[in-house]
Design goal:
By secondary structure, the protein is α/β, with parallel strands linked by helices. It has a single domain, classed as 5-stranded Propeller (L-arginine/glycine Amidinotransferase, Chain A). Helix content is about 35%, strand content about 15%. It is built from 17 helices and 15 strands.
């Protein structure tokens, strides 16, 4: 039987904007209040997804959230017609309006944690949407995320869906951005590496001083239980609090793994040597720990270029390739390192660069844009086939973007009632293209 690691990229929503909502995310904060280009952002994401499909990868798409989120604004006390709710929020609490207009669901690495059937006791692929409680604009996503995942992976014979964790800081869960699966082959049982920022219920444990540690150990352990993972299938490792304070808000900004390779910065983790020994023991196979030293690439350059927010994929010919943003190519230190990396004898043999600058300026690189789902050929066949990238879907989605998306959007434009109509019209059509059914509240 054939096995694959599929990538499901988040479609960029019509309200893609730079409101600077993500404290701790240097790029998001530094580009706040710039004008965005939703159409360009969506097309850049589609081009990257199509490129991976053309490389022979199983590539899908996940629909964006409904924004503006008028239902959340009504829960916050704004009332009247849709236009009145928007106008009241813009005048009385513009930051709440900004949060309810965020297109952050494009970063589907935060959509959920996924465990493949090879690891789980009941032999199903398990999904748990992330609760994302650390940020208001993301905390309103999980229910719709669950709807979209269930519409994409609907066959109960193969897929099992869980409710997101309790909405409390003790269970702060950021999804696959803090989860990496290592294995000898996608179809073999592997080791799921859960990286956390703090122990919420241990006040004496180390944690960052400046920026929040969004993922807790308690959340990671809860997801492992929900997914029916054995102890020998899990390693729980703490992210270095000092690098969180330097803008490394998720583990996928400082390390990335694929099969038997873990590509990481030397400052990424706490207790690195002992935890790597645990991974080796539980993997029971050769593991390539590819370390980037600070003298080669500083934390500042790693965060600015998103060297580690790249994808590592295994091509059909067996070679591994890094899918990197063009920002890596434009950073002298990072570009020099990547040129050297492919000569070092690791499984990584290629680097391919893609322009995702609209996403990068808001703090998300190629790895943020995708959710990895390891599946066998029967499970791939059970996926909603309308969500899998091919020439026809690529053309249809680009046409859809051209029809519905604006070229320019400023924070001030979020108060435009016409944006509600544009967004809902676009999403209603998208659910028909992807055959998702009624996943949004406005459709019910």
């Amino acid at each position: 039987m054939k096995h694959f690691e599929a990538n499901f990229d988040g479609l960029v929503g019509p309200t893609h904007n730079y409101a600077g909502l993500s404290f701790g995310n240097v790029a998001s904060y530094s580009n706040a209040a710039q004008a965005s280009n939703p159409k360009a952002a969506a097309k850049q994401g589609l081009a990257k997804a199509k490129a991976l499909a053309d490389l022979g990868m199983v590539q899908g798409v996940l629909a964006p959230q409904e924004r503006p989120d008028l239902y959340s604004l009504r829960r916050m006390g704004f009332s009247g017609s849709d236009a009145e709710v928007l106008t009241q929020a813009a005048k009385q609490a513009p930051m709440l309006l900004n949060a309810c207009c965020s297109a952050s669901s494009m970063w589907t690495a935060n959509a959920a944690t996924v465990s493949p059937s090879a690891d789980t006791r009941n032999g199903k692929v398990h999904f748990t949407p992330a609760n994302l409680v650390d940020k208001l604009h993301r905390s309103i996503e999980p229910t719709t995320t669950g709807n979209i995942l269930k519409a994409t992976f609907s066959d109960e014979k193969h897929f099992q869906h869980h409710q997101h964790l309790p909405e409390h800081a003790s269970f702060g869960d950021e999804g696959a951005a803090n989860h990496t699966r290592l294995c000898s082959d996608y179809g073999h049982a592997g080791v799921e590496l859960f990286v956390y920022g703090q122990q919420a219920m241990n006040p004496n444990a180390p944690k960052p001083k400046k920026f929040p540690a969004r993922q807790t150990l308690e959340a990671s352990q809860a997801v492992a239980r929900l997914h029916q993972l054995d102890d020998e299938s899990c390693v729980f490792m703490q992210q270095n609090p000092d690098v969180i304070d330097q803008g490394v808000f998720h583990n996928d900004v400082i390390s990335v793994g694929n099969q038997n390779v873990l590509f990481y910065h030397e400052q990424a983790f706490v207790d690195t040597a002992a935890k790597f020994d645990e991974i080796r023991r539980k993997m029971n196979t050769d593991v390539h720990f590819v370390k980037v030293a600070t003298e080669q690439v500083s934390i500042q350059d790693a965060v600015k270029s998103y060297l580690f927010n790249t994808q590592i994929i295994t091509l059909p010919n067996g070679e591994m390739a890094i899918i990197a943003p063009t920002d890596c190519e434009e950073n002298p230190a990072v570009h020099a390192y990547l040129n050297e990396l492919v000569t070092l004898g690791t499984p990584i043999k290629q680097v391919r660069y893609y322009d995702v600058k609209q996403s990068m300026q808001n703090g998300g690189g190629p790895a943020c844009l995708r959710l990895r789902v390891a599946m066998n050929e029967h499970e791939v066949a059970a996926v909603n086939q309308n969500t899998l990238m091919n020439d026809a879907l690529f053309t249809r989605l680009n046409t859809w973007v051209d029809k519905h998306y604006r070229d320019t959007l400023t924070v001030a434009d979020l108060a435009d009632p016409q944006l509600i109509i544009e967004s809902r019209t676009a999403l209603d059509e998208l659910t028909q293209v992807l055959k998702l059914g009624s996943v949004y509240q406005f459709q019910k």
